[in-house]
Design goal:
Largest sheet: 9 strands, mixed
Structural class: alpha/beta
Number of domains: 1
Helix content: 25-40%
CATH class: Alpha Beta
CATH topology: Rossmann fold
CATH superfamily: Alpha/Beta hydrolase fold, catalytic domain
Length: about 290
């Protein structure tokens, strides 16, 4: 573990303690994680679950905003991502993500006993966060998802989907599909920074990981009614990477949860990195404050 260091956010002018560390996963892989914690007592703790190909460091500006609101923020790099061990964007099974996240959550809860926890997931991380919550609702004060990957897009025909699933079983390390980097944000500076970030993986994803996510997407809708915790949904209406219909399906299916949904007109995939990010983050902060107070 590296020593705690004091950071001063240029955006919020809030002092915070920043920590970097790692834990050993059940299979021996080292999973990197970091935290941003206010100097004073935290009103809530937010566990950030990042998206496909990226890493926790891309959420520093989100963390700064949340710390300014009194939250402690913790974020890991998924296996095969960022500074964590593992073949890039590859898992043997979806459960590897869930086991890592459950272990990480227990670490965070040990650092903040009694403080209400919000799980915040983006894109693939939104999928993983939903999967975690469906199995582990107890102790979660609220679940928030941004541009969540919850539904297979229309570009995947039934035939193409079947072929993809067969490929994943035979050769899970094969990489048949990639993502359009230009579709993450309407801000060219965000796209350029993404392309030049050495910790971001911009190549094609493995068939094994893709099949793991698709399997989760198929299983989720029948279980949405079991969610009873407060739920925040944020999605850009022009998201070309994660079908907004998946978020609408979650909103409609979570009939026993208190749902707050925002569909941001014209925004792309990364709503926290769009020109309107201040409005999006303000909506998230207001929901966290109302949910954890």
């Amino acid at each position: 573990m590296t020593p705690r260091g004091r950071l001063q956010s240029d955006a919020t002018m809030v002092s915070m303690n920043h920590t970097e560390s790692s834990f050993t996963a059940s299979d021996g892989k080292k999973i990197y994680h970091q935290s941003w914690v206010p100097d004073s007592d935290s009103s809530a703790v937010v566990m950030v679950v990042h998206g496909l190909g990226e890493h926790s460091g891309r959420y520093q500006h989100v963390a700064e905003t949340l710390v300014a609101a009194g939250c402690a923020v913790h974020a890991l790099d998924h296996r095969g991502h960022g500074k964590s061990d593992g073949k890039r964007t590859f898992v043997k099974s979806y459960d590897e993500f869930l086991v890592d996240l459950a272990q990480y959550r227990s670490i965070i809860e040990g650092e903040h006993p009694g403080v209400p926890m919000v799980v915040l997931g983006h894109s693939m991380g939104g999928n993983i966060a939903v999967g975690h919550a469906l199995d582990n609702q107890a102790g979660i004060a609220g679940l928030a998802v941004s541009g969540a990957a919850l539904k297979v897009g229309d570009d995947f025909s039934p035939l193409k989907l079947k072929i993809f699933e067969v490929v994943a079983k035979i050769a899970p390390g094969l990489r048949p599909e990639g993502l359009s980097v230009d579709a993450i944000s309407r801000d060219p500076a965000v796209v350029e920074a993404y392309k030049n970030d050495p910790l971001v993986f911009t190549g094609k994803i493995s068939a094994g990981l893709g099949a793991a996510l698709i399997g989760a997407m198929k299983s989720f809708p029948a279980r949405y009614s079991t969610l009873t915790l407060p739920l925040w949904i944020g999605h850009g209406t022009e998201d070309q990477l994660a079908d907004v219909a998946g978020s609408r399906e979650l909103e409609a299916g979570a009939v026993n949860a208190k749902v707050t949904a925002h569909y941001y007109e014209g925004l792309y995939h990364e709503i926290f990195n769009e020109p309107e990010q201040d409005r999006v983050l303000a909506d998230l902060v207001a929901w966290i404050e109302s949910t954890t107070s």
